[in-house]
Design brief:
Distance between the termini: 74 Å
CATH class: Alpha Beta
Number of domains: 1
Largest sheet: 6 strands, mixed
Strand content: 15-25%
Protein name: N-acetylmuramoyl-L-alanine amidase
Keywords: Hydrolase, Signal
Strand order of the largest sheet: 4-1-5-8-6-7
Number of strands: 8
Number of helices: 8
CATH architecture: 3-Layer(aba) Sandwich
Oligomer: single chain
Mean pLDDT: 88
InterPro entries: MurNAc-LAA_cat, N-acetylmuramoyl_amidase_3
CATH topology: Aminopeptidase
CATH superfamily: Zn-dependent exopeptidases
Low-confidence stretches: 1-27
Order of helices and strands: HHEEEHEHEEHEHEHH
């Protein structure tokens, strides 16, 4: 066999065994959820950067907490849409269930940025939470991607804020049993995390663009399960158990 023939054979074998490996590479999934960043709107007039900074470093926890639940989107803003579901409906249902569970089980007062299918701007949501002098802010969302490839759970805290990341972690740990794909606790400069004066987190409980996640989110029992887990995560963060 000539040297030329040997080289051609080697090249053919290399192509044969590397091409399938390249085709098998998983599709890249989104790293950050598509929520509004801190530059999306002007800050609310009652945002107190000094108070936010102090709470972020000290993780202040006194007495029984006041919490604000923030069901994402609403009214003219449906949020993500998929499999005949709208994010605004799912987040509102989970938030209402979470409030009911908390009121029935914990000495925690709960406000909501919306209780019906109405539109609230980011400024209105954060301004309302700040006006309640709340201790906790939990923003509830459903994720989405351009294909059905992405799925699972992720939560967010504000970058560098120990209290925010801790709350996001406690809630994430409680929500994990509901999902087979765990995308982690992440940080992002989302508007609602930056401009709330209290400890804040944002949850993305599944992808409405994924058939399995959407099928679960369509079930009352699954949404109730998520609501209980949100509440339990808040309880664990505040009371330590």
């Amino acid at each position: 066999m000539t040297l030329k023939t040997t080289l051609l054979a080697t090249l053919a074998l290399t192509t044969l065994f590397t091409a399938p490996a390249m085709a098998a590479n998983p599709q890249k999934q989104p790293e950050i959820a598509p929520e509004a960043l801190s530059t999306a709107e002007q800050p609310p007039s009652n945002y107190d950067a000094a108070a936010k900074s102090a709470r972020s470093s000290l993780e202040i926890k006194n007495g029984n907490p006041v919490a604000v639940l923030d069901p994402g989107h609403g009214g003219s803003d449906p949020g993500a849409v998929g499999y005949s579901l709208q994010e605004k409906d799912i987040t509102l249902d989970i938030a209402l269930r979470t409030r009911a569970y908390i009121w029935a089980n914990y000495p925690m007062w709960v406000y909501m940025t919306r209780e019906t299918d109405v539109y609230k701007s980011l400024n209105e949501r954060t301004s309302f939470a700040n006006a309640q002098y709340a201790d906790l802010f939990v923003s509830m969302h459903i994720n989405s991607y351009s294909t059905s490839a992405a799925s699972g759970l992720e939560t967010y805290g504000y970058p560098g804020a120990a209290d925010s990341i801790s709350l996001a972690t406690r809630i994430y740990d409680k929500l994990k049993p509901s999902f087979s794909v765990h995308r982690g606790v992440k940080t992002a400069e989302f508007y609602v995390l930056k401009y709330t004066n209290m400890t804040s987190m944002l949850g993305e409980t599944g992808f409405i663009s994924n058939g399995t996640d959407a099928g679960n989110l369509a079930k009352d029992t699954f949404r109730q399960q998520l609501a209980v887990q949100y509440a339990q995560g808040m309880h664990t963060y505040w009371w330590g158990y």
